[in-house]
Amino acid sequence: MSSNPTEAKIFACSQSKxxxxxxxxxxxxxxxxxITSTYSDGEFQPSFExxxxxSRVFLVGSTNPSSExxxxxxxxxxAAKRASARHITAVIPYFGWARQDRKDKPRVPIxxxxxxxxxxxxxxxxxxxxxxxxxxxxxxxxxxxxxLFASTIFLxxxxxxxxxxxxxxxxxxxxxxxxxxxxxxxESDVVICYKQRAKANVISHMELIxxxxxxxxxxxxxxxxxxxxLTRAADLMMERGAxxxxxxxxxxxxxxxAYTKINESKLExxxxxxxxPLTQQHDKxxxxxxxxxxxxxxxxxxxxxxxxxxxxx
Length: 313
Known about the structure:
- The chain is globular, with a radius of gyration of 20 Å.
- It has two domains: 8-148 and 292-310, Rossmann fold (3-Layer(aba) Sandwich); 151-289, Rossmann fold, CATH 3.40.50.
- The termini are far apart.
- It contains eight helices and 14 strands.
- It is 29% helix and 27% strand.
- By secondary structure, it is an alpha/beta fold.
- Strands 10-9-8-11-12-13-14 form a seven-stranded mixed sheet, sandwiched between helices. Strands 1-4-5-6-7 form a five-stranded parallel sheet, sandwiched between helices.
């Protein structure tokens, strides 16, 4: 029996199954059935175990490394296209490879553009993602991109803390726009960290622009990888007289010695979303769910309704 053309179906890549299940529950449908076969050499093949013909298909999967996560999403997109799905939306809570959004030196790739073309070629007709590393990545796509902001999740939590003498901080110059948007909503001051890198993930020097003495500081960033920048910034601010330092980071990559650095730092709390599952639990890490936000936007997309109310910044 063919599927109802108006029917919406949600499927999960293996790295995002828990989040996808929460999204499907909030959306009001059962998570679709996919079986993945694996060859001896590691090659794998996802298979839809139900008809998607004529349906609006949502494929949920973050593309954080390893590259198999991206490859799995591409294969699922291709399978949905070849199975005659009517609309194929790639729901990518964390859009990986986004730090390579420009040529910052000769003879390097623009990986974010390459990934955009791969998703398009594989069969995606729409992208829904959250807190891209750089806004201009939306322009790499020749299809609609719904770029959601985790501020809709973080701001209510921040307000519930009732922090006095609040100051919003950006851990680098590139994040100043995000920090100013939060400060406008919270009616707070802003400080910025100026850093110089010796190489990727290695900071050679950091300086603070602004006064944090007697302030409760909240650092705002789109991702936390090795946590080197955040923990160094937190320690610097405490040395400069801050009362407390928290951090808000949408995507918890937390690679290398990140957990150890967070544990040993003066950071009071790290607030993240579940766009990427944590590899371990930690007393200092607070996880807020983004499932409701994605489910609401997916419902609006499915019903051809406006989603502008979902954007706070």
